[in-house]
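Lecture notes, part 5. Sequence design as translation. It can be helpful to think of inverse folding as translation between two languages: the language of shapes and the language of residues. The source text, in structure tokens, appears below.
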């Protein structure tokens, strides 16, 4: 997202005024699923193999789960060092839409069902 696009997001602007602004942050990928998979695995897309946002583009939760060890991700690494962790918001496209869906080792996991 470019800074000039914030004018369309009043709620985000309110958060910005009361929090931190990352002026030099970069995303590892322009698509959400590969970027989130990179955050979770510490690998770039060509290594975690989540290349798109849905199965048709070789992405989404099903592809991520098929090619990565779900028991060896960021929350497990942090949990092993006694950090509390939280994932709040959208996870990966195609994540199971069940109230009981939860990835392992997140201290707090709040993902919308819609």
């Amino acid at each position: 997202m470019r800074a000039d696009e914030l004018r369309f997001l009043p709620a985000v602007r309110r958060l910005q005024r009361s929090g931190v602004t990352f002026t030099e942050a970069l995303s590892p990928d322009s698509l959400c699923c590969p970027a989130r998979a990179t955050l979770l695995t510490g690998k770039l897309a060509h290594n975690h193999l989540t290349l798109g946002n849905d199965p048709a583009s070789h992405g989404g939760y099903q592809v991520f789960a098929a090619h990565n060890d779900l028991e060896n991700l960021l929350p497990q690494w942090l949990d092993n060092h006694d950090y509390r962790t939280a994932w709040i918001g959208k996870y990966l496209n195609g994540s199971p839409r069940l109230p009981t869906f939860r990835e392992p080792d997140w201290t707090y996991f709040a993902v919308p069902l819609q």
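The translated text above is only one of many valid answers, since several sequences can fold into similar shapes. The longest strand covers residues 86-88.
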